[in-house]
Amino acid sequence: MKQISILGCGWLGLPLAKTLLEKGFSINGSTTSVEKIAVLEKAGILPFQINLFEDRIEGNIDLFLSNSDILIIDIPPKLRGNSTENFVAKIQNIIPFIEKSSVDKVIFVSSTSVYADDNSIITEETKPNPDTESGRQLLEAEHILQSNKNFQTTIVRFGGLIGDDRHPIKFLAGRKNIENPIGPINLIHQIDCIGIIEAILKHSETSGQNDKSNEVFNAVAPFHPTRKKYYTKKAIDLDLSLPEFDESKPSVGKTILSDKVETVLNYKFEIKRY
């Protein structure tokens, strides 16, 4: 039975852990909250309270990584509002612990925010050019992980995350002067996030132990209507107040293609329209 450590059992990490348990993996899972330890334990996950800071790690990180073949890092930067977190320093802090552990493969959950909103069509061959602080720090974290020769790192760049309990329209409903009405949406459902990570794990197994190549995958559903068209329809469907868009300025955005997920991983999106 392979053991996987999941750093960050939150909105995506917890259901991912439950799915992998069902597939026969043994899971170590981390949370920053002492209250959530019981939740992980009840799910069959070996729980750890781990807190990453810019200058230290609190919690038994060595035991968390012990005997695991794979580490999945799913801890997004906290850079909204007035936060000035140094996410890169957090990732740097964990590197020495990975190096001395049994982990030989890392899956790093990143974001399509590493690409600029320049109205282009984006593939994995597109050179990242982030225009947000979150995107810049994620890209640097990617480089730090993939440049390390002690383990192999696969990067998965998810688009906007949605699920049964999470959707941008709940935030946008009734708002006015929303920018970029003609910009395309780039979203992905939680079900497909989990499915793609499963496909990466399967791909690693079939590639064999000698495969030390680093991969990057974009992960966005192949569905790109304009923001105005999509969010207006979604508001109507959910009987919410309509969002109002600012059409006085040119729209910016990008269209993220995820063809590599389908060709290399042989993955078929379960939820193409939402």
Break the fold down into its secondary structure elements and pairings.
Elements: E1 3-7, H1 13-22, E2 26-31, H2 37-42, E3 46-49, E4 51-52, E5 57-58, H3 61-65, E6 70-73, H4 87-99, E7 105-111, E8 120-122, H5 133-146, E9 152-158, E10 160-162, H6 169-172, E11 187-189, H7 190-207, E12 215-219, H8 227-237, E13 254-256, H9 259-264
Parallel strand pairs: 1-2, 1-6, 2-3, 6-7, 7-9, 8-13, 9-12, 10-11
Antiparallel strand pairs: 4-5
CATH fourth-tier homologous superfamily: NAD(P)-binding Rossmann-like Domain
CATH architecture grouping: 3-Layer(aba) Sandwich
Structural class: alpha/beta
Helix content: 25-40%
Strand content: 15-25%
Main-sheet strand order equals 3-2-1-6-7-9-12
What's the order of the H and E elements? EHEHEEEHEHEEHEEHEHEHEH
Global geometry: globular
Summary tags:
single chain; 274 residues; alpha/beta; Rossmann fold; 7-stranded parallel beta sheet; two-stranded antiparallel sheet; 9 helices; globular
Structure commentary:
- With 274 residues, the chain is α/β, with parallel strands linked by helices.
- The strands form four sheets. Strands 3-2-1-6-7-9-12 form a seven-stranded parallel sheet, with helices on both faces. A two-stranded antiparallel sheet has the order 4-5. It has a two-stranded parallel sheet with strand order 8-13.
- The longest helix has 18 residues.
- It is globular, with a radius of gyration of 19 Å.
- The two termini are 35 Å apart.
